[in-house]
Amino acid sequence: MADLTKTFGSVRAVRGIDLVIAPGETVALVGPNGAGKTTTIDMILGLTPPDHGSVLVFGLPPAAAVRAGRVGGMLQSGAPLDHLRVRELVALMSSYYPHPLDVDEVLRRTGTEGLAPRWTTKLSGGEAQRVRFAAGIVGDPDLLVLDEPTAAIDVEGRREFWQAMRAIAERGTTILFATHYLEEADAFADRIVIMARGRIVADGPATEIKALAGLRTIRATLPDADLSRLGRLPGVASVDRHGDTVILSCSDADAALESLYRDVGGLRDVEVRGGSLEEVFMELTADELTADGLTADGLTADDTAPRATSTLEAAR
Amino acid sequence: MSAATHVRCEILRTVRNPRTLGITLGLPLVLFFAVAGANRHAHVDGISFPLYFMGAMAAYGAMFAAVQPGARIALDRSTGWTRQLRITPLRARTYFASKVLTAYLVALTSLVALFLAGTTFGVHMAAARWLEIGGLLLIGLAPLVVIGVALGHLLAPDSLTPAVAGVVVLFALFGGAFGPLFKTGAMLSVVKLLPSYWLVQASRVADGGGGWPAEAWVVIAVWTAATVGLASVAYRRDTGRV
Fold it and tell me: A2-210 domain in CATH 3.40.50.300?
């Protein structure tokens, strides 16, 4: 993908994405609602033409890659088909591809064997999702794209889903999935791409992303704290309070702690923790929101784009 | 990779739908038995009532069958199935061809059922005549099929069902499927511009031999061409593809 851009009316859904995914990689696309994940996926699949920039899938334009049967997808909406049974649906999908997998084998692997004779419209959310997954992989595509595949599944169903997914990844299939669940991205992806407001704000393995922001959290009991003053301390990125407890997200926890004792004082029960992926994510995506909110719109693009790029490079 | 499975599933989905049997096959048959039964020795428009009404109901049922692909397309769009298909190697033309083929199969079934019903009320003619009537009806359906496809890309399923039913009923009414509306005058010349008029007339012109006059062929051809234009605009607008 090079400089990919898509605007819907006044909404700039995707604003200049550069991304190269190597064959065989499992990549998670993570971001809050409205980050541009689905739009990006639609452009990769050739469902939406980009306004600007280009996408190549195995060196081909998306439509050509799709026609050659190299792409399989599981979209956010879709598949259950009226008056068709589960096995018929999976067999139907397999008939579109030049070298499909064995239908019964796929049903077995996705745990949908028992659903085979059921009507596709009479399934629970989790069952329907597994059937759609079966329908997505039966063509044995080289690239499998999944848009929030576990959104409608309970915890147990999610585990089964990811087991089936691992088996697919081991075949060497390139997988790109969008998700809201950071723990899924952490557990199943080789690489995490975080999007916010139509841009890539971080890109790399989970461990690198955690280290990327270098965030530590300081928790301490500090009654009647002046939050805005705490926020201005060296090394402090953001401040929050629950009752008498203050929580400081710090880019430099050592400097912040030193200053807390020296300039503020009176703290008890001090606790310093390493940042979780969740916190890094909040930090990265919230940053974008603030930057956008504070600067004039025209300025934003110039202002944040270089930072996003440098983050990207740092992560590689 | 073959289109056979796709066509088979399309047919399965259609025949498993109770609406197909009820409205497309059942309703014209029920109307025929009820109305033609009460008038089996009457004459209308110079021919026997059962023959006229058999042709009329065959046209009516076939028109319902013809617009069904539109309803199926609207449904496929609303469930996301169309988007799913667009990321498979399936060609758009195979998708449309299977819809149209299915519609014609249902239309043909409806015709055969009406013809059989007609024979029970004394409609008799040579095998070649039956084939001719059936052939003219199937040809004359083309604009209705295309109108269905166009509406399928323009409307959501909720509004589509009444829309296609309305289109069919109006076409049938003005075409004379419920009895000839106009026997002479300017309005007759107007309804002669409708494809449904010639669908209803197919049984009488074929029974006399010789088929449609040139006028009928022109009407069907112009309607088909115009509706194909409309449908391709609707398709492009809907999918964003040029």
Answer: yes
